[in-house]
Amino acid sequence: MKKLPVFIVLLLAASLILSCGNNGRQLQSISIAQTVNGEEIQFVATGTFSAAPITVTPLPVWWTFAPPGGPYTLTTQPFVLQCTVSGPYPSPIIAWAPADPNAPSSGSWSSTKMITASTGAICP
Description:
With 124 residues, the chain is mainly β. It has one helix at residues 3-20; strands at 27-37, 40-49, 55-56, 62-64, 72-73, 79-82, 93-98, 106-107, 114-119. It starts with a helix and ends in a 5-residue tail after the last strand.
């Protein structure tokens, strides 16, 4: 008889431990920093997450000027805008990243919840 309560306690403990393995860490927001270097602007994305590590820079994102079409492909490379051509410059510049940090680095927009941030570009 005493083995049954011990078994139930062990079963509950095991399920609790397994459920803690997926802590639900999600991307909450993206910020974009820009650096002017001569006649180019470099944009880098930083992600803020719901659990540690809270901040990730550079955040793997998909850079666009407009709402995307087709599949996405994430990159940690900065987005570079050349300011050698007279304006107007494409704006806004948009960074997209999956809310789930374990999402694949490329995939379909329709099956992935995305977080976005945008910024304007003002060339020197």
